[in-house]
Design goal:
2 domains; binds alpha-D-galactopyranose; disordered N terminus; single chain; 28% helix; Immunoglobulin-like; globular; alpha/beta; 13 helices; 427 residues
Length: 427
Amino acid sequence: MHAAALLLVSALCSATWALDNGEMRVPPMGWLAWERFRCDLDCQHDPKNCISENLFIDMADRLFEDGWRELGYVYVNIDDCWSSMKRDEKGRLQADPQRFPRGIRFLSRYMHARGLKLGLYGDMGTHTCGGYPGTTLDDIALDAQTFADWEVDMFKFDGCYSNATVQEQGYPLMSKALNATGRPIAYSCSWPAYQGGLPPKVNYTQLGQLCNLWRNYGDIQDSWDSVLNIVEWFSENQDVLAPAAGPGKWNDPDMLIIGDFGLSMDQSRAQMALWAIMAAPLFMSNDLRTISSGARSILQNKMAVIINQDPLGIQGRRIVKEKIGIDVFWRPLSKNASALVFFSRRNDMPYRYQTSLGKLNYTTGSYEIHDVFAQKTTTLKDSTPFVVSVNPTGVVMWHVSAPAKWNRRPFRRGGGRRGNAIPPVFL
Ligand code: GLA
């Protein structure tokens, strides 16, 4: 076949029916205000933490100066409570003049000058969840144009103070309106989170054509229980969710809370590993000015980020759920590589889990294993039993190379350990 024909065939094969704005071919990464800073309006007594332009400037400076941007953490996202309680005389949304005296365009330019991007928040309804002005059906075109005029790069459209009929019209209309501005604005839809939460009610094919990412489920809170609950819901519903994801269209299990108050170091590694293997957006909601070096090194783990950002964009799945409280997740990666996460839901002590790559459906061969957090490399054959020690509420995460062929030793009569199991490798 001609090279050109080959190219065409491969382009057709990799074509996905995602929103055609070229945005977010890999899961987006960055920072989002909500979980950590909520609707703190007390700039008088809490100037460092209130929702104001200073907070977003501070976080942008940290992303720019502390090695985050180079890893891909480029979005700085404003959430609720940014706007004035009233639209302006032309009916446009406007930023709160006290807390954002230089307006949103000043902030987007601040981001762009540093190779970062700005995200903004709105609501398909009469009010945002925090009670600020919402976007009714009549406001959609004007609001989309306002965001484009402000040079915003991403827009999260929440769904409070609304109903199913309005949402059915409004989410697609906003998608069209954003595209019509001619500015690439990534579109985050909270729609499915308001559709009763159960995947069968949601038309994921349509969502993938309208939105670049979508919140499927309830809000994350700063606790391990909340992370566990989200992971369980995403795993239980993975047969519906995983096929919906791909380049340009992602399920969003909500923000990373690593670096806040609710997670131990093991639980932080677990959230990072599980979000990476689920091809989830990596939006941190923490205080980058005071984050501990432990939390930072988890969030800046290169191999975890590489796994999350794999260009194939296939969402990983839970492939084993053991009654004893061990789960195994698997994600196929480009170049025939893959990732594995061994996750312990136990609360007692490190659990020594024995299995083999063969048992986890790997084909015959020898594999190079890179332990993402221990940063050690080993080689394993598919048939070799191994034991991984998984801390309570923690993970072991592996990057597994493409298989290299190996020759099974020919069976020799009377030789070897016939009848005995091969002793496991302890990793
Ligand atoms: C909803 C969303 C959150 C956040 C708040 C803001 O609860 O799910 O992510 O945006 O509204 O009020």
